[in-house]
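[recover] target loaded
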């Protein structure tokens, strides 16, 4: 039976507000009828679908069993929606992602939308993070073919947001997947960005971490340490040397109260300073780093160690890095010695 324009508009008005009594399969079928009728504006139908999606998604999060007819309508109106990618990943035999776009367009649009999707959640449940990580990994594989992306500079901000969202996801990942993610990040740095844009990319991610200090990142000190190490690897290149002063300014704004849990961060910081001194890069900056960054951290470490000595009871969870403390002291003194040799 063919519906009249009046009937279509009445149905459209009736389903305007999401209702728990309405399930996704019925909504999907109704939207298909309305779309095929040609009486309802496409933009209005898209808004209707999005409103129901936002209402139903907390329910879908439990198992992602979204009816196919609803997903097909979603693909019709919003082909870049991350939920399509997530559901396609859960059901590999079902192709919901349109293949008519260029590889660059699919990757750029998909990565932008997926970053927005991840940033909309303050905390991730473990089961959510596992599902999201698989899609995240898929986008990383798409980036391997760097030949399809000609304008790398425009990708600095896009991928910085993408990786920041990914690092936030580590709250719900185990250490093995987090380590794998870090490996993917290193590949992105080395393979995707040339020497001119690589330091800008690393700095942009560090800036995102600075800006969102109220949002916790799992293994944050370790992840920041990776950023520092990636920067240090190319410190002798002119492009990195030119950004070194601002990079130190960024590092200096990051503080961790528990030295034990942040030994990787502080060790990476000291090794960066040592490398700068060894390669004799910017004596004036090196002196500033020693006096305004390393020496205050040295005092912080001393104070922290004394505090721990006075505590009668130690919380084991708070002292995860205690066994690395001697190595931290070694890297600190090593950096101080090399810097003094350079500047004196």
């Amino acid at each position: 039976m063919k519906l009249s324009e009046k009937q279509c508009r009445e149905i459209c008005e009736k389903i305007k507000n999401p209702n728990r009594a309405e399930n996704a399969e019925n909504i999907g079928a109704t939207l298909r009828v309305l779309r095929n009728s040609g009486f309802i504006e496409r933009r209005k139908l898209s808004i209707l679908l999005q409103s129901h999606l936002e209402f139903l998604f907390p329910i879908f999060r439990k198992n992602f069993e979204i009816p196919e007819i609803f997903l097909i309508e979603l693909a019709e109106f919003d082909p870049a929606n991350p939920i399509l990618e997530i559901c396609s990943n859960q059901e590999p035999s079902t192709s919901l992602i349109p293949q008519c776009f260029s590889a660059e367009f699919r990757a750029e649009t998909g990565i932008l939308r997926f970053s927005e999707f991840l940033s909309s959640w303050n905390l991730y449940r473990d089961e959510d993070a596992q599902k999201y990580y698989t899609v995240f990994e898929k986008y990383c594989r798409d980036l391997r073919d760097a030949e399809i992306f000609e304008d790398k500079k425009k990708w600095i901000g896009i991928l910085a947001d993408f990786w920041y969202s990914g690092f936030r996801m580590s709250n719900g990942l185990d250490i093995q997947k987090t380590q794998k993610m870090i490996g993917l990040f290193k590949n992105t740095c080395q393979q995707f960005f040339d020497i001119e844009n690589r330091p800008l990319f690393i700095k942009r991610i560090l800036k995102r971490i600075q800006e969102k200090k109220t949002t916790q990142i799992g293994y944050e000190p370790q992840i920041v340490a990776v950023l520092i190490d990636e920067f240090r690897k190319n410190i002798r290149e002119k492009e990195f040397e030119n950004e070194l002063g601002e990079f130190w300014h960024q590092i200096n704004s990051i503080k961790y109260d528990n030295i034990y849990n942040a030994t990787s961060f502080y060790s990476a910081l000291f090794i960066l300073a040592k490398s700068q001194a060894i390669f004799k890069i910017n004596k004036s900056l090196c002196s500033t780093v020693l006096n305004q960054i390393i020496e205050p951290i040295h005092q912080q470490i001393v104070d922290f160690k004394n505090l721990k000595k006075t505590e009668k009871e130690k919380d084991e969870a708070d002292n995860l890095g205690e066994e690395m403390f001697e190595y931290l002291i070694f890297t600190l003194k090593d950096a101080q010695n090399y810097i003094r040799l350079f500047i004196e």
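[recover] notes: DSSP finds 15 helices and no strands in the chain.
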